[in-house]
Amino acid sequence: MSALPGDGAIAFKGAPLDYNVRYNDRKNKITIQFDAMGKSEKHQVTLEINANGFTDVIVRSMNRTTISYYGKIKMYQGGRN
């Protein structure tokens, strides 16, 4: 995640830390959790992916308000858009 400098956006640096994937067959859902380092803080990221592709993304930080996104994901086809 990244945006223009100075706009208060979150930018992750480096590879994810403590990457964990859990499958819940009963709820037909995948949960992915990892930590990511920013410029001066660590963020906890959670993705909850439902069978229909709808996904919740939650980004938690010690110094910022929790941010959440909801939308539908699709398979990456490669290349640049």
Structure summary:
The protein has no helices and five strands. With 81 residues, it is an all-beta fold. Strands 1-2-3-4-5 form a five-stranded antiparallel sheet, with no helix packed on it.
Task: Write a structural description.
Residues 1-6 have low confidence and may be disordered. A 5-stranded antiparallel β-sheet has the order 1-2-3-4-5, with no helix packed on it. Helix content is 0%, strand content 54%. It has strands spanning 13-24, 29-37, 42-50, 54-61, 67-72. It has no helices and 5 strands. A hairpin with a 4-residue loop joins strand 1 and strand 2 (29-37). It has a domain at 19-72. It is mainly β.
Secondary structure layout:
Elements lengths: L12 E12 L4 E9 L4 E9 L3 E8 L5 E6 L9
Antiparallel strand pairs: 1-2, 2-3, 3-4, 4-5
Could you name the ranges where pLDDT drops below 50 across 5 or more consecutive residues? 1-6
Largest sheet: 5 strands, antiparallel
Number of strands: 5
Provide a count of the helices.
0
Order of helices and strands: EEEEE
N-C termini distance: 16 Å
Structural class: mainly beta
Rg for CA atoms: 14 Å
User: Helical percent range?
Assistant: under 10%
**Strands of the largest sheet, in order across it?**
1-2-3-4-5
Task: Tell me the β content.
Answer: over 45%
Estimate the mean pLDDT confidence: 86
Outline, from the CA principal axes?
A: globular
